[in-house]
Amino acid sequence: MKAIMPGIRRPDSLDFKDEGACMPPRQNIWCVLGTRPEAIKLAPVIRELRRHADRVQLTVCLTGQHREMMAPLVELFDLRPDLDLDIMRPGQRPSEVFARVLERLPLAWRSKVPDWVIVQGDTTTTAAGALAAFYAEARVAHVEAGLRTGDRRQPFPEEINRRLVTQVADVHFAPTLLARDNLLREGIVAGAVEHTGNTVIDALLWAANQPLSPVGPLQDLQTRLHPARRLVLVTCHRRENHGVPLRRICSAIAQLAARHAGRLEFVFPVHPN
Length: 273
Known about the structure:
Number of helices: 9
Number of strands: 11
Strand content: 15-25%
Largest sheet: 7 strands, parallel
Strand order of the largest sheet: 5-4-3-6-7-8-9
């Protein structure tokens, strides 16, 4: 089975075979996404599907879950969305996001239900999009399937989201062998699971080869960093870290920065929430 991009292989049930006697002329495939991680990790998939325009009718659907944060990535990866559900409202709870996606997505399918709906990861958009596709009797392909912590509330609500998607997905793209084994232990048939690697690597390799210039905060950051000091990048966006845990993390960073003053510089990009 030939690779269609680094780290991604075709599962038998989603194979674009040249002879394809049993395949319809063009598969109607939707990619449903709403957050930054989904945009980054689905960008290589979307790019590859567009290379097969003779066999794939692709629709890129944004839910609007991360509207402001998505805009630069939509431009960077040339995602060219066909539809925006515009579901986000200030102060929405995950249950409200879920309900809006579940309500609005099927409205876009009233004239024609997709053959496949591709979702990525474990966001609220992912879970709601997969369930909406299942209710519409479309087949579901889950990118980055099989991640598990064993604790339903850690991470919250992502652990339950990805377990839910597993139950309705027809094809599971596992990023690691451990993720693949998790799915097999849960009773997913081996033929429906593909160990692919993580598409974030494909996105990273692509971005590293682009002629990108720092703009805005990144441009300002370059002028402030000392070239002789080593850089420590801190990323810490988890709902369960809000409050006391995050204060402890910040305190630890401050202690390390003081201890290694003159040798290390810490950069902490902060999530809008």
